[in-house]
Amino acid sequence: MNLIELTATGFGFLCVLLTIRRSVWCWPTGLIQVLLFIIIFYDAKLYSDLVLHVIYVGLQFYGWYCWTRDDAGDDNLIVKSLPMSWLVGWIAVTVIGTVSVGWAMARWTDASLPYPDAFTTVASLIAQLLLARRYFQNWGFWICVDCVAIWVYYTKDLHATAVLYTAFLILATIGFLTWNKQRRKQEIEAIAA
């Protein structure tokens, strides 16, 4: 555990809290977290996570762009729901992507824990895309990622990061419940209007 990991952990925690509140400030906060974790994962030889966080840099800007295009402001950002066929499709992409990336990492790198690392990478990318578009199901993907990530980071002696992902698991569950409640409220208001 070092200062970079602790700082990244703090920004990560703040980012998720802001995301649950649907605050656009989650994106610049997340950008700082992502940049710091690039350094951490390079040092730990978790290459799938490293690549993921490099991609996250672009996704942070994409999410920031998407969320600032809504005229309603932070407290009223619209929460959407994926159709079931799309959800099943994203789950299939997660499985296929995990097997493919895990196999590539096991075959061509000295990656540690290639398949769990690949799962957290693929599922996180999908969750981040769903988050940027404000689909409440993003939280279900984050919950799965957090469960696997806790074990991966603990195994790699990244204890502060494992604690962060334990907090993320709790926060993702709260996020799922909060965003789902907001989605239902919006549906009721739409029917009433």
UniProtKB/TrEMBL annotation:
It holds the Pfam family NMN_transporter. GO terms for cellular component: plasma membrane. InterPro entries: NMN_transpt_PnuC. Its main location: membrane. Keywords: Cell membrane, Membrane, Transmembrane, Transmembrane helix, Transport. The keyword Membrane applies. It comes from the Bacteria. It is found in: Cell membrane. The keyword Transmembrane helix applies. GO terms for molecular function: nicotinamide riboside transmembrane transporter activity. It is a multi-pass membrane protein. The chain crosses the membrane at residues 50-67, 87-106, 139-154, 160-179. NCBIfam families: NMN_trans_PnuC. Belongs to the nicotinamide ribonucleoside (NR) uptake permease (TC 4.B.1) family. Required for nicotinamide riboside transport across the inner membrane. This is Nicotinamide riboside transporter PnuC. It comes from Rosistilla ulvae.
